[in-house]
Amino acid sequence: MKFNPADNIQDLQYFGEFGGVNPSISDSSTYTFLSAKTMFDTFEGNADGCYLYSRHSTPSNLYLGEALAAMEGTETANVSASGMGAITPVLLQLCNAGDHIVSSRTIYGGTYAFLKNFTPKLGIETSFVDITKLDIVEKAITKNTKVLYCESVSNPLLEVADIKSLSALAKKYNLKLVVDNTFSPLSISPAKLGADIVCHSLTKFINGSSDTVGGVVCGTQEFIDDLRNVNDGASMLLGSTMDSLRAASVLKNMRTLHIRMKQHSYNAAYLADKFQADGLKTVYPGLKSHPSHILFKEMMNEAYGFGGMLTLDVGSLEKANELMELMQHKNLGYLAVSLGFYKTLFSAPGSSTSSEIPEDEQKEMGLSDGLIRFSIGLDNNIERTYQMMKACMLQVGVL
Prior knowledge:
The protein has 399 residues and is of the alpha/beta class. It is built from 15 helices and twelve strands.
């Protein structure tokens, strides 16, 4: 049977302690034992089903991790307090001083800053490359390279990674392929395409209500156990623990993810078609004009579309700011960072979420001052939204 990530989530069944249709929340920081021997065994990781301390794990976090692993088709998963709290331990677990990472040059600004400015202090160097050019990726690999890192759909330029080909490269050189799938949950399943480790910022589409910060690492049982190891596990020792109440909240929101992603994708595709027809410089993986449109189509789980993210280049930062302020005034969305909310969110990434990347590097990768990143919301009447957006664009002189 064909892999369907939403069906995998649906097939999970949890009951609460007293028969509730939602699992009970483990609102406790520490756990009691009937015997000292069981406490010792639990600390050593030899007592399944027992909990010691909530930084290590909680039932609520394990429920959410199981659902996310089912979604991505991995053996298990470990949730964290933020997306960066998922990504950074993975890279630190895989690399030691003297090791090397090959990363896409267009990635989330926080990840870029971690690789560019922080990991060199630990003796870990990174080469940033155009991830869409496999020959350049291969040339960047050295004898010290341990990791290939990319985003399925890049932030903010919406470049699409050829995960199957990158996986083949990783296997050829005995590397780990780590993929951030935040922009394309359900639409793309990186582990099924050969990724070794899949990360998400749960803050975005997966939670969907912009009220929680969280992250997850999906991978093999062996690797997740390594992350959780009390002696040298990066997730355990860095302590980026998700709160049980938040884990329970995200798990409930996951039940509607398949419905939300279909609507996000439908609305984004509709607007992208209209904007491109109006002559705007529009980037969306669902457009045939996108250089990786066919690649995305080959990789995607078709039912969930091409995602809810698109970009428009309106020529200058001044025009971008004027348009975004007017659209917010007209209640078409919010001038805000992040994505995956029920309302459309828009920002100029060059001066916000990608501001960690130096201006010369932004220009080299094609990130212009006038670029607006849109996370398209769940609007019921998308034609009405389009007409109102178009009126704003005409008013500020973008059209």
